[in-house]
Structures are given as C-alpha cells and as structure tokens.
Amino acid sequence: MTRGASDDAATVVGPAARTTAPPGGDGPREGAPRLVARVAARAARWWARFSPAGLVGALVLFAAALGPSLMPRSPVYQGAIAGVCAAIGYAVGTFAGWGARRIGLRAPWPPARRVLVHRVTAALALLVVAAALLVDADWQARSRGLLDMGPAAPARPLQVVALAVALGLLLVLLARALRATALAVARLAGRLLPPVPARLVAVVVVGVAAYLVLDGTVVAGLRHVLTTTYAALDEETFPGDEQPTDPERSGSPASLAAWDSLGREGRRFVAGGPDVDELARFSAATGLEREVREPVRVYAGLDTDADLDQVAALVVAELDRTDAWDRSVLVVTTTTGTGWVDPASAAAVELLWGGDTAVAAMQYSYLPSWVSFVGDRATPPAAGRALFEAVYARWSQLPPDDRPALYPSGISLGSFGSQGAFASLSDVAARTSGAVWAGTPGFTPLWSELTSDRDAGSREVYPVLDGGRTVRWGRTLPDDSASLADGDAEWRHPRVVYLQHPSDGVTWWSPDLVLDRPDWLREPRGADVLPDVSWFPVATFFRVVIDLFVAGEAPPGHGHTFVGEYADAWAAVAPPPGWTPTATALLHTALDAPQDTSVADR
C-alpha cells in the first residue's frame, strides 16, 4: 500500500510525469506559466538595473516636456521632445542618486518593504504619465483653437508615449554603452597609470572617439543627404512659374542673370508678384491718381564659382540694366536659406507704390534656414552685408535728389542676415530710409541689443524703445488688429519696424532657456499664447526648440507667418504721397489673398 502510494507520487512529480503527459492534458498549460514567469523574472532583473532616482528624474522631465508651449505640434514632435527630456532627466536623477549615496543617504524603509514601495511608486508613475498626457491633450486643443488650426489627430497619447519610451530608452542604452566603453578603457589605462588619471584619460578618449564617429558618420551623412536633396530641388522649377519676358525682371531674355541660374526660389520670385493690371486696379480702389509701372525685380542665383561679393555685383549690374535707380523705392532683401523672398512683403511694397519700385535679392545657399540656424550663422550676415554694401556703394554715387529711397528688409534668417550690414540703430538711420524686418531670430545682435535697451515697463514681446522715436515693434492685439501707433514720442523718419509674434519660436528660442527664465515668461503672455505657458528647467528649452521648427506651419498672423502685418509696416515706413488709413485697409485685403507665404522649410 505504501509502495503503491509512493509509485503514484513518483508518477505525479517525477521527471517522466513532466515529459510524458498524455495529449490534451495539463502539461502544456503548466509550461506556459513557467515561461511567463521566467520572462517576468528576467524583465524584473533588467528593470532593477535602472536607477530609481534616475527613473524619478525621467518621469519629472517627461511630464514637464508635455506642458504648454507656444505652438501645437504633432505627436512625432511631442514624443521626440518627451523622449529626449526623459533621457536627460534620467541622467540628472542618476547623478543625484549617486551623490546621495556617496554622502551616506539611504532609503528610510527596510528591505522587506521595498517591494511594496516599488509597487506604489509604479502606480504613482502611471498616474503622472496619464495626467501629463491629459494636460498635453488639453493645452494642444486650446492652443489650436486660439490659432484657428482645427482639432488634433486622434490616437495622439499612444503615439507620444510609444515614441518617448523608445527614444528615451535608446538614448539611455547608448549612454550606458559609452560608460561601459570608458570603464574598459580605464582598466587598460590603469595598467600604466594611477586610477584617477586612468579614468580621466578614458573619458577623454571615449568622448573624442564618440565625437569623431558622430561627426564623421551621422553628421557627415546627414549633411550629404541634405546637400544632395536640396541641390536637386534648387534645379527644379515650381509648377506654373514661367520665364518672364519683361526686361524689368532678372531671368528674362534681356537679363544678365540667366533664368536657369536663379535657383528654384529665385525663379519663383522674378516670375511672381502683381502685374500692371492688378496694380492699376488697386491704385484706382485707393483713389490715388498715379501712373503704374511694371515693378523691377532683380535676383542673382548661387554661383559655386563666385564669392558673395561677385554675386552681389551681379545684382548691382541688374539694377543698372533695368534702370532701377529711376524708381521711387529700392528694397534690398536678404533671403532665407533657400533663397526665398517673402512674396507678401514684396507685393506690399509694389501695391503701395503702384509698381514704382525695385526689389533686389540674391541667393547664398539652397539649404533650408534651420540648417544654417544650427550649423552656419556666419554666411547669412555675410551675404546681407555683401549685398547691401554693393547696392549702397552704387546708390551713394547718385545725386541725393535723384535716387530712390533705400530700404533693407528680410524675414527669419533673412532678417538676421540683413541686420548683419549694420553696426547699430544709428547706422541704420544714417544709411537707409527705413527698414522692415520680420520674424527676427533671437540671436540677432542688433535686435537683441534694442530689445534689452527697451523702456522700463514695456514688455519683451511688445517693446517700446525711446518712446518709439525711431524703431517700433509691430504687434498683434487681442482684437487681431495690428498696431504701430503706440509710442509717446513722435515717430520720425527714417522709421524701423520689427514684426514679431508672441507665438514665434524662432524669435524666442535661446540657449539660455535651459537654466534661465526669460522676461517674456515672467511677464503676461502675448495675445496668441496660452496664459499657462510657463518655464521649467531644461524642458522649456526643448519645448521652444520644437516651437522653432513648427512656427512656419502657423496660420497668418501667428507663429512665423507674416502677411497682413506687412501692410501696416510698409505703410508706416515708406508711405507714398496721399496714402490714407483706408488705403492701408485695402492693402490688408489684397495681401490676405491666398499666396505661398509659409516659411516652413525655407
């Protein structure tokens, strides 16, 4: 009896019982839980390798990254910024935890309670993530409503979390790989050096090697792809753009600058703009009695065999050929990275003056502005300086009473480049008849100096300088009407106008955002920015990085898109005889007609 019982027990628990269970029995179902348990155990061990303090830091910066900012953005952008911030937060938290352990700080709970603490912490983390996603959805919806951008795409939270986790984990694992490599190098160096110098040598060697690999592969590869792609695009022509026949245009049969040499954006510029019939209708509507003319538009494309001074000289030759010096107004425009000239600005001047104008520009690159924004800030001001100085030298040779009024202008990187021709506001006033600059990047020296010197009590997004005596900032009021009338002093000529929007990340981005709260986040927010946009270390910097990239996708009047604002700006800076506020309102309407004014990828 006892033996039979033992045999039965052996049958149940012995090896044979685990390997020869009858078909359809419980054997396979017993194996599945064990497999799940093994996977769970391995996952738990893998998860335990992460620093608890680092995970807390990652969670804090992840949540902060999803907070309100200047512009709504896609789940891809939001997930990317959340992932990068989470990785940075993990690094900061890990370092803080290491420092705490070094000075003897330990968790106050006994080991037996750690499992409970971990579970409670995990539950709180899930609540924080859910709350952050709710905040993200809420502010994005409110911001899109404020900017008239329509509802956001569905399934947004899942996309944001998935991308953030994937990117954040990838960055942490890359950092761990670099650390492991540095430790290995330190062990090798330790055979010849004391421990501390060995570690320093290892850090330097691995850091330099990582930089060389990154710069020689990722950066070089990206640069090659961008150069190849945009060089090919520059050779194309936008659909509908045809070679002009009017001799007043570069690229025409009479031009010194061949149509094929102008680049894609240059061809669009010389082929576009209001024609004589449109100018005549607009002049009649304003009640101004004047003879309209075919506007002069001159442009020189990027020539790889010529330097900037030679390209600028070709622009001056085109101005000579078209007798542009006989016009009432000459606008010297510095282009964006791809060679783009904002059509709204050029059209505003031509409508304002009935075509008695000349607009001159040249190409200095075919890469989009963000590439120069990141990697080449020397060329745009060099190009702006070369073009203006060449035009100014020729213009100065003409009799003062027999030459056009001279106005520099530019948008975005073009504004930055155009201002590179001037040492100060006094220099602008001494050598020009006024200026209109739009969407100026925050790192522009002249803009930064003037903004910093603003009158006490005026806000950074709406500065007032010297009572508005020379320079004024165009602003969007809550009723959506642009105003340049504010100012205690008389606005004298020459007048300078900066057009900027509170929601434009191009203007408000700065490296200082990493650890410093700017004035525009201390003061009441601008009219097109949510009032709960706030500053958080590190996270705000990356939020505004994304704002910078998406600013060109904003509708007119917001972000980095300027249209109707040019009516007020040019009417204030360069008003023709007999111009009235009613005419300015008509100019607003004319500019609001659909046209390609997006600065995205320019």
From TrEMBL:
The keyword Signal does not apply. GO terms for molecular function: hydrolase activity. Residues 66-274 form the Alpha/beta-hydrolase N-terminal domain. Residues 296-585 form the Alpha/beta-hydrolase catalytic domain. The keyword Membrane applies. Keywords: Hydrolase, Membrane, Transmembrane, Transmembrane helix. Pfam families: Abhydrolase_9 (PF10081), Abhydrolase_9_N (PF15420). Residues 236-245 have a biased composition (Acidic residues). Residues 1-32, 236-256 are annotated as: Disordered. It comes from the Bacteria. InterPro entries: Alpha/beta-hydrolase_catalytic (IPR027787), Alpha/beta-hydrolase_N_dom (IPR027788). The chain crosses the membrane at residues 50-70, 76-96, 116-135, 155-175, 196-214. This is Alpha/beta hydrolase. It comes from Cellulomonas wangsupingiae. The lineage of its organism: Bacteria, Bacillati, Actinomycetota, Actinomycetes, Micrococcales.
